[in-house]
Predict the structure.
Amino acid sequence: MNERLVLSEPILPATTQAADGMPRRAWTVAEIEAMVAAGIIPEHERFELIGGEVVPMSPKGARHETVKYELNKHFQRTVPDEFAVIPETTLQLDEKSFLEPDFCVYPGELKPGEIRGYDVLLAIEVADSSLSYDRGRKIGLYAAYGIAEVWVVDVKTLTTRVHRYLGAEGYREVFEAGMAETLVSARVPSLSLNLAALGLQTSL
């Protein structure tokens, strides 16, 4: 059974201030969805909402898409039906925050639009230009909202930084694995990954 561990009072960055020192307006998820539905924000525009602030995401490069494509093929072929692996879903954290993980793994009986942070057994980020953000600020958000385990794959070196065993102060275990090492999820033991076995090579 999935533990619903959420750190009390998630610490989010306050909305930034405009040049004149006045605070910016914080948007809600519902308002952002309404703007997308009305065509004010294009559907293809990529961003995340953190504490009410819109955070633009970097365009995806060919290297990022190649690694993500191979991971998706592997997961869809190997992960049992009791779990769902969905790429590029919008993960709502609260009324003012959502993230866009490259992959979310969660119990198969849930529908994608229903999942919240505590439902996610494993989140995977495939990182290129966003590597420092994915390993830094975003990890703090994942921990604050109860995501049990996070892997961040560096598309250049094909190393994976693993964050798992979530406790009251964040992830208790953090380590890096090389491309030839086989990773096994702590929360989904039937999910494993060996990047070298997928035929991927570093770009360095």
